[in-house]
Specification:
Helix content: 25-40%
CATH class: Alpha Beta
Radius of gyration: 20 Å
Structural class: alpha/beta
CATH superfamily: tm_1862 like domain
Number of helices: 8
Largest sheet: 6 strands, parallel
Strand order of the largest sheet: 1-4-5-6-7-8
Low-confidence stretches: none
CATH architecture: Alpha-Beta Horseshoe
Order of helices and strands: HHEEEHEHEHEHHEHE
Number of strands: 8
Distance between the termini: 36 Å
Mean pLDDT: 90
Length: 258
Amino acid sequence: MSFPDKKPHPDLFKKYNIQGPRYTSYPTVPYWSENPTPEKWLETIAQAQDEGAAKGVGAAIYIHIPFCESLCTYCGCNTRISRNHAVGMPYVETVLKEWALYQTRLKELSGNRTRITEIHLGGGTPTFLSPQELGTLLKGILDHVEVTTDFEFSVEADPRVTKREHLSVLREVGFKRLSLGIQDFDPTVQNVVHRIQSEEQVHEVTQTARELGYTSVNYDLIYGLPFQTQQSIHQTVDAVCRLRPDRIAFYGYASSCR
């Protein structure tokens, strides 16, 4: 790995070496000002849907898949740890029932059909679901909506459980962006945070995604994890450079989030 001769300016480190909000909700929690009733919530969504239709834009939908086979100790997300994959289809069916309720009420409140520009699958581990379950979920979401021409669908994935079949099913319905949770490649760090995965596993998923036509592959990395050193971070960055993702998200470890 090579670095440019010019060193980063110290003022840049001062500017960006600060804690930012955790974007686990939107708007973020400090901006919440009320606790709406279900009806008020639906009216607000219908209004936003109508305003979007007038501007020619669609909605962005986030679908949370909470299941993971094991717990990564840095994780601050809403998760359910299970190796019983039989829980997948009942969860998909429940999400689709909720989606149907939204569609029924929005049809009553809004004069416009639901238009979607973005779908984001996160977790947990979306690829905990089988390829067939993912297909059922997305077909149920997309069957009764209009998708704009500039749509963008993305998915978070765990390299340890993500197979070609997962990526293929997602690609068939329009997914082009993939985000892989890497965090660190150092074996000691991986062991303590309970996230053990090899560079070879990550390489295989990355290459498979590109072969299938994914146009953006992101790697999530974390600094400040237990037992990390400058040398281990350099080695992780070297591995990332060999794998050449299109984007990197580099987060500070938030030890108080759980």
